[in-house]
Each structure stands twice: as structure tokens, then as C-alpha cells.
Design brief:
Elements lengths: L2 H8 L1 H4 L38 H23 L9 H6 L6 H18 L10 H11 L2 H14 L4 E7 L5 E7 L14 E7 L6 H4 L3 H8 L5 H9 L2
Antiparallel strand pairs: 1-2, 1-3
The structure holds manganese (II) ion.
Length: 233
Amino acid sequence: MKRRNFIALVGTSIASAPLWANGITSNLPAPKAIDSAFPELPYAFNALEPAIDAKTMEIHYTKHHKAYFTNFMAAIKDTPAAELDMKTLFAGISKQSMAVRNHGGGFYNHSLFWENLSPAKTSPSSAVAAAIDKSFGSMDKFKEEFSTAAKKHFGSGWAWLVAGNDGNLFISDTLNQDNPLMDVVEKKGTPLLCIDVWEHAYYLNYQNRRAEYVDSFWTVVNWDTVNKRYENR
Ligand code: MN
């Protein structure tokens, strides 16, 4: 579908904003509906400095993320899977090609990641704070556990805060571009917060010091997004 038709279908008030501006990324439409609309970054490349430097952001967004998007659209174009919303696609990802799995995950995970970062000072809602206390004991313990998962993940991948189907929150890490919505991962649920721990996410500024990157991440977490994802889980 062309972008103008998509806009006509959903209304200009939604389509004129970046896809992730309203915390709606977890409900991204079917690939067929987004094929000409690579979403805009919701802030400037230098907005997250010093935690994430402008050059890393520029390359990460315009090269890495764009390539995942382009390759995903090429892999899924004119297949029945292009009709599926992203959640449904991931729930059956084991039946898709590795190109759809890797590039679809890459497109989607980065969309989530940009959306859960912000230069603005934000804080967890009372509901999210209560859920974190219940599942991890305290905010500090949650941050420690999440950070450890991100620091210790071996190789390329992601660390996640996830809402499980039982109502509890948990932390997981996934390989490559897999995510907790995929039927191929062990621990499944709705992603609330993620961090990219591929070397391309931090190496220009931090080189091998992934731990420093992970510790800095907490200064740019967009809790407003986490709160919305928790409400809509
Ligand atoms: Mn990345």
C-alpha cells in the first residue's frame, strides 16, 4: 500500500506522527501497510548525548535500521505474511524464512528501541513501579538484573523487560534480532523495554566497554513509553 493510501485509511491525525510517537510500536501494522514509510526518528541524532553519541545514532538509524527495514520489506513482499500484523507474524516466525526472521526482528526491535529512549526526564507510572516491585523486589534490583542480562549477553542480541502472560514481569535476553514475541524464543511475552547490545550500538564511543554503555542507558530511558506499553499489553 502506498503511504498516501495508508494515510487515507487510518486518518491524518495518526499517520502524520511518527509510527512510534504514541507508544504504539508494539501494534505496528502489517508490512503491506508500512512498505513505503520508514518511520522518522523522534529526536535529533545528538539528543541522547552523552549516553549515546550522535555519530553512533546516525549510523545506527540511517544504515543499520534502514537496512533491516529494506531487507525485511524485500523478503516479505508479495507473500501471504505481508498481510499479518507484526505480533501475529512473530508468533509464527518459525514458519518464515531466516531473512524474514532476522530482518523483520531487526526492523521491529530497533523501532521499539528508539521509542523507549528519550532525552526528556520521565518516570515509571505507579502501575509500572508496583509491577516492578512485585516482580523484582525493588526498582534498584530490577535495574541491576536487567543491566546484568545486558552486560553478560554473549555476542549480538538484546536484553528485555517483558510482561508475561501470567501478569508478572521478567527479564530475558535474545540472540541476534530475535524478540520475546517470537515463537522461537524460550521466554515469551510483551516487550516493555529493550536495549540493543550489538557492538554497532556502542562501539564507536565505548569500544569494548559495554558495561559503561549499559549503565548510561538508564539516563535516557523513556518511561512514558514503558508505561504506555504496560497499559496496552
Ligand atoms: Mn542495532
